[in-house]
């Protein structure tokens, strides 16, 4: 059975446009907010969430910020593996780890200027940023214990913002300022070459209307997140969108040398990179460089695209 692993997002690479299918989005309520309003609302929701955990240890209040299908993915220190935690286990961990003793106090702060908000039209929003955690034990002074990069997918349920998926990656303090300047080197060269080859096959099918190849490469439980089109979770509609919106009209051009690949334990891999799209029906239209993230899962020796995140 396919894991419900959602994403491994690296802050230095924002994500992007992969396909156009605004006519095939799930029927979710629109947020109806400007980006500035949306950003401020999520900052307030974020503050309320963490205040309820670290400030008041109000687990019931903290739980109200988590959707029923909430999932948490956290990078295991010293490895490139993501640990998946469901809602019930996550809440119990909050109760045990942050409300178990009065001698330990934790404080969390956002790194100023690091938070970015992207609207997922007719669905919710993606919030990314950098956060620091401080611990004070007994009479000892406060000490920085962890810096992480996070991504949260928020959705409105009954008028209240709730997190449905969160992914955290450990980040040293030095990495906060220096990570964007580091040159990418594959952790696993063989995996890198394998995923680059799969990318070529996937987008050759995209460019040349090989719908059966596309159908074979996408997971039956595909999830596609797009800042303009919203969220799609239907493989048949995805293939239909390719047929109607892409075939014979749009081609994709990969930015040379832009692909980065990271392993996700025994599950699969994350591919990130940059590309442009050319619309044959609008040959003079400007083509801007966008970023993309693909989650590839390997099942019985075959690779499948499980998740896509696409932002302008």
Describe this structure in words.
With 312 residues, this protein is an alpha+beta fold. It has two domains: 29-181, Nuclear Transport Factor 2, Chain: A (Roll); 189-311, Nuclear Transport Factor 2, Chain: A. Helix content is 26%, strand content 39%. It has helices at 35-55, 59-63, 87-98, 173-178, 189-207, 211-217, 235-246, and strands spanning 66-75, 82-86, 104-110, 116-120, 124-137, 143-157, 160-171, 218-226, 230-232, 250-254, 260-264, 268-279, 290-299, 302-311. Strands 1, 2, 3, 4, 5, 6 and 7 form a seven-stranded mixed sheet that branches. Strands 8, 9, 10, 11, 12, 13 and 14 form a seven-stranded mixed sheet that branches. A hairpin with a 3-residue loop joins β8 and β9. α5 packs antiparallel against α6. The protein is elongated. The two termini are 32 Å apart.
Shape estimate: elongated
| Mean pLDDT value | 80
How many distinct folded domains? 2
CATH-level-2 architecture of the largest domain = Roll
Spatial extent as radius of gyration: 20 Å
Structural class: alpha+beta
Enumerate the spans where pLDDT stays under 50 for 5 or more consecutive residues.
1-30, 174-181
Q: What is the fold's blueprint, element by element?
A:
Layout: H1 35-55, H2 59-63, E1 66-75, E2 82-86, H3 87-98, E3 104-110, E4 116-120, E5 124-137, E6 143-157, E7 160-171, H4 173-178, H5 189-207, H6 211-217, E8 218-226, E9 230-232, H7 235-246, E10 250-254, E11 260-264, E12 268-279, E13 290-299, E14 302-311
Parallel strand pairs: 1-7, 8-14
Antiparallel strand pairs: 1-2, 3-5, 4-5, 5-6, 6-7, 8-9, 10-12, 11-12, 12-13, 13-14
